[in-house]
Design brief:
The protein contains ten helices and no strands. It has 174 residues and is an all-alpha fold. Among the domains are: 9-75; 87-138.
């Protein structure tokens, strides 16, 4: 990115409350960028700030230009590039299959090995358990945390218990 400013960076950043922005920011990488900009605002040289952080001074200059022109949103990462897994072209189908597996299970939870087997059978994809956990996170199943069902449990008996709970408590407290 070319140089867009003719005035010193410290003057361009003067009206910004970086302390407040740093406190509010959750992303550590963005906080580092904001701390760098705050030090430049205070008059520190770009080359010194870059040396302390361990990056090229041109990168710090880019941060200054991005912040001045676009604001804090431009300092945030844009996500990872690269090829996406073919399974996530069928993301909703994957999520449905995982939920279906859990619902059909008579008791307990499904485990990564179960999902791994399902991926192999239904999607022709051989993935490690670590990748499976990543897939589950991407579809907001940060792990299948439904409550275990005992194989001999009865929904009818549970409902009767819930309806008669106060009577049972009164009866046992006498």
């Amino acid at each position: 990115m070319g140089r867009i400013r003719n005035i010193p960076a410290s003057e361009s950043l003067a009206g910004t409350d970086f302390q407040n922005l740093i406190k509010q920011e959750k992303n550590a990488k963005v906080r580092v960028k904001l701390i760098a900009l705050e030090n430049i605002k205070k008059g520190e040289k770009v080359s010194n700030v870059a040396k302390v952080i361990g990056i090229n001074r041109r990168t710090v200059n880019d941060w200054i230009n991005y912040f001045i022109e676009f604001g804090i949103d431009r300092l945030r990462d844009k996500g990872n590039g690269g090829r996406k897994s073919p399974i996530f072209k069928k993301e909703s189908q994957f999520k449905e299959e995982v939920l279906k597996m859990q619902n059909e299970r008579p008791g307990g939870r499904i485990i990564a090995k179960d999902v791994q087997k399902m991926l192999k059978e239904k999607f022709n994809a051989d993935r490690s358990t670590n990748v499976i956990y990543d897939y589950l996170k991407k579809v907001n199943l940060v792990w299948i945390s439904s409550r275990s069902k005992h194989p001999k449990s009865s929904a009818l008996k549970q409902q009767e218990f819930k309806e008669n709970f106060t009577e049972i408590v009164k009866k046992n407290s006498r």
